[in-house]
Amino acid sequence: MTGTTLDDYTDRYAQRVRGMTASEIRALFAVASRPEVVSLAGGAPYIAALPLDAVGEMLGQLASEHGTSTLQYGIGQGTLDLRERICEVMALSGIDVACGASPEDVVVTVGGQQALDLVARLFLDPGDVVLAEGPTYVGALGVFQAAQAQVVHVAMDDDGLVPEALEATIAEVARSGRRAKFLYTIPTYQNPTGVTLSEERRERVLDICERAGLLVVEDDPYGQLGFDGAAPAPLRARRRDGVFYLSTFSKTFAPGLRVGWILAPHAVRDKLVIANEAQVLCPSAFAQAAVATYLSTMPWRQQLKVYREVYRERRDALLSALTDLMPEDTTWTEPNGGLFVWATLPEGLDAKAMMPRAIAARVAYVPGVGFYADGSGAGNMRLNFSFPPPERIREGVRRLAGVLEQEADMRRVFGAGPIAGDRPGTREPRPGLA
Ligand code: PMP
User: Fold this and answer.
1) Which atom of ligand 1 is the closest one to the Cα of 186?
2) pLDDT tens digits for 95-129?
């Protein structure tokens, strides 16, 4: 067809496409990646910290010496070699044989993102409810929206999901006659807040979900990127049934390879493999061989330490710049790991509305609204510290502080005016997160 316009397609779209909108992050990528902009917007790992020559040599050999298998089709579940290595990686976090982790129940996926999509395909019918932290990972919101499910947020504070709020939300959903299928949670060094669910709350959250018959989808890309000692053991290390554990090599090795996985309850494994075959036939054999070889021949535990050190230094740079430079009444989380800090702006400021002025001041962040399904988050922003070096982080915060001060001045001079964050009901009190 030639000469068609966008409108020619609108009445042909599937129902699920209606909920699809460009993510806040994608829309920003083009401007935020200009060299003069300090981007605190992305979530990119610092790949330059990898031994790139050694990785390059390994990749070359995988093609030249093992190409007949690495460049061939593989199987839907992923190679046994990689699934065994994945079990070694999970054991480091406490998910081991003793809690029933086995290569048999691992399904390799195209990054953590496809893992989310597979779980959604398996469990979500249109109209189903997914419970998730408020705020939560923007890419998960996209997947749940595409599945025509409704995300209902559960309040969190500096210790993660609030168990009482979880109980109340489950009851509220039940009263409304809808069906909550699972709790989607990122308990450790969460995206976007950097907050970790406390040890004590982990058991309570699991008990509440068990009692309510809710599955738990535990998304854990960041658990091994802790700066101040080990994180509490993952939920899957505490329960073998009812918990789907999702992770990825994107943050601990390299996102360009697109390798992630699901550790599924045994009974569900076959369905996941069938869904995987329907979606991608098989994950890339080459990428799987690359990760498996990296894990068997290169010092990956040492590399984890390198990433942690780099990110700890950058987290410190961001926190001290925020303390030194941000206007009063701005608050932020203080993460012990991961890649992100979540900032709360002085009352009345709108991070999305402020974005063009921030870009003009050559700094970028992700406005908080992108991390909510219900329009909350106008007064928040996510700041990334994994990619820019410490001095750029400080410069970025200096520029951001200038923009915030200008905004506050304008509000003083011209009055408040209606902004998204002031609409009644769009800002939920989230105690302690600030
Ligand atoms: N889950 C969370 C919480 C994430 O932050 C990300 C990546 N930003 C993903 C899943 C997706 O991971 P991947 O890049 O491996 O697809």
Assistant:
1) 3
2) 999 999 999 999 999 999 999 999 999 999 999 99
CB-ligand 1 contact for 283 (6 Å cutoff): no
Of ligand 1's listed atoms, the one at least distance from the Cα of 258 is: 15
CATH 3.90.1150.10, the chain: domain bounds: 14-49+302-413
**What is the reported pLDDT for 416?**
65
What would the two tokens of residue 107 be?
Answer: 């399904």
- Please check whether the domain covering 71-299 is classified as CATH 3.40.640.10: yes
142 within ligand 1 shell (Cβ under 6 A): no
pLDDT band at 23 (very low <50, low <70, confident <90, very high): low
Q: Is CATH 3.90.1150.10 what the domain over 14-49+302-413 is classified as, yes or no?
A: yes
Check pLDDT > 50 for residue 387: yes
Q: State which ligand 1 atom lies nearest to the alpha carbon of 339.
A: 5
Which class for 96: exposed (0-12), middle (13-18), buried (19 or more C-beta within 10 A)? Answer: middle
Ranges of CATH 3.40.640.10 domains, the chain: 71-299
* Phi, psi (deg, nearest 5) at residue 160: 90, -160
Across 1-67, the runs of DSSP E, i.e. the strands, are 38-39
**Strands (DSSP E) along 290-405, which ranges?**
331-332, 340-344, 363-364, 366-367, 380-384
Alpha helices in 5-51 (DSSP H): 7-10, 24-32
Confidence class for position 15, pLDDT limits 50, 70, 90: confident
Tell me the per-residue pLDDT of 149-202, one tens digit each, with 9 for 90 and over.
999 999 999 999 999 999 999 999 999 999 899 999 999 999 999 999 999 999
